[in-house]
Amino acid sequence: MRPVIVLALLCGCAATAHAQSAWTDRGYVTISGDIRVSPMSFAGVTHPVVFVETATVTTTYDVQPAPGVDGGVGVRVWRNLGVGANVSWIARSSTGSIAAQIPHPFVFNKPRAVSGESSGLDHDETSVHVQAIWMIPAGPRWSIAIAGGPSWIVVNQSIVSDVTVLSPYPYDTATLSSAVSARESKGGFGFNVGGDLTWHLGAHAGVGFGIIYSQASVPFSAASGDPVTVKAGGTRMNGGLRVRF
């Protein structure tokens, strides 16, 4: 089921909940396992100097769905309205598709085309989401929370700055040997919106399923490289313990 459909169903359930139902708890705490279900890709270009000429190295980064952990807290401030914060961390090594033009060691203006794949490029994200929360009790056992607000997302990413090549005599051709990368950490502001459905096992404990979409533009720049903007965030699903107090 698509994440957008899940959010729509949560909103639909909220709309059909009893209008007179009131949120009477002071607040809640959540602890969940988390997975970002949406893949992510972005591209970067660097221009290292090789044999006194400028090379061009283009890397397309591919980050597949990533597991992580998630925790949150919220407090009721007025009727069914609350405020809270949610923190999540995900990690997954990315791969890079590399296409480069590498100068010839002896002949000017005669670049050699090199291409290949680089794996094990570190990628992780730490997200802090501040949220306004509308809580709707939907019977004695169920509650629905709809939330949204600003986000701050920090991305740690290995950025390719250069490549090493194998080039046998007479050096007219070259093949990719490895990528030279450095880990960078940058953050950016964005937004989040999501929902959570909880089944209450007792007076204070329950289990829940949540979905949240977030997005932030995070700028990166490798040495001798063009600026790279990473669209961090994406669609995440989580499930775990819900505690009311």
Could you say what the CATH topology is called?
Porin
N-C termini distance: 32 Å
Largest sheet: 8 strands, antiparallel, barrel
Strand content: over 45%
- The helix/strand class is mainly beta
CATH architecture: Beta Barrel
**Mean model confidence by pLDDT:** 91
N-to-C order of helices and strands: HEEEEEEEEEEEEEE
What can you tell me about this protein's structure?
The chain is elongated and about 80 Å long. The chain is mostly beta strands. The chain has one domain: Porin (Beta Barrel), CATH 2.40.160.20. It has one helix and 14 strands. The strands form three sheets. An eight-stranded antiparallel barrel has the order 1-6-7-10-11-12-13-14.
Lay out the secondary structure.
Elements: H1 3-16, E1 27-36, E2 40-46, E3 49-50, E4 53-54, E5 56-63, E6 66-78, E7 81-91, E8 94-102, E9 112-121, E10 123-137, E11 142-166, E12 175-200, E13 205-220, E14 228-244
Antiparallel strand pairs: 1-6, 1-14, 2-5, 3-4, 5-8, 6-7, 7-10, 8-9, 10-11, 11-12, 12-13, 13-14
